[in-house]
Design goal:
There is one protein chain. The protein has about 170 residues and is mainly alpha-helical. The protein contains six helices and no strands. The chain has helices at about 5-20, 30-55, 60-80, 90-110, 120-135, 140-165. It starts with a helix and ends with a helix.
Length: about 170
């Protein structure tokens, strides 16, 4: 197993840690959990950088990396919804998009087709990280940024549909 894939697995391990910290009754649990989320984002950037720089991109990494991102995002949004930080429609829209992307990814993987992430998906992910970070400090600004993030995720989704239909 290479370093990028280990970082991806680490990101998956951060998911239950995020949940435990988020729902703990400790002071600043929201901020602490969002720092865990940001750590996951940093490892996402780092594993991609290392994989590209040292040309150790694997099929498993191409599949596991976005899966880890999607699982973390759905987890974070679910937790935020449970504590009423966000409206339900945000989770519904993003979960529907992400579940569809996972199912399509599995289907394409079985056909030996891999559609790697692109700039639209990466920007959408960055917008989510920023909006969730800001949400910890300012609910009003953070929620508007989150709405923008949802819109960017929808744009990214349609971009992937266009790329897929060309293959």
């Amino acid at each position: 197993m290479n370093i990028p894939n280990l970082l991806t697995l680490f990101r998956i391990i951060l998911i239950p840690i995020f949940i435990l910290v988020f729902f703990s009754e400790t002071p600043n649990s929201l901020l602490k959990s969002i720092l865990i989320f940001l750590l996951a984002g940093f490892t996402d950037f780092l594993d991609g950088y290392i994989a590209r720089k040292y040309k150790i991109i694997t099929k498993a990494g191409i599949v596991l990396d976005p899966l880890a991102d999607k699982l973390m995002l759905i987890t974070v949004l679910s937790c935020l919804l449970i504590k009423s930080y966000i409206p339900a429609w945000v989770l519904i829209v993003i979960a529907a998009k992400e579940i569809f992307m996972i199912l399509c990814g599995v289907f394409l993987y079985k056909k030996n087709i891999v559609i790697p992430s692109n700039i639209f998906g990466k920007l959408s992910t960055v917008f989510f990280y920023i909006s969730i970070f800001v949400l910890a400090f300012s609910h009003k600004i953070g929620i508007y940024l989150l709405y923008f993030s949802v819109a960017s995720a929808i744009v990214a989704f349609f971009n992937y549909v266009i790329v897929y239909t060309k293959k």
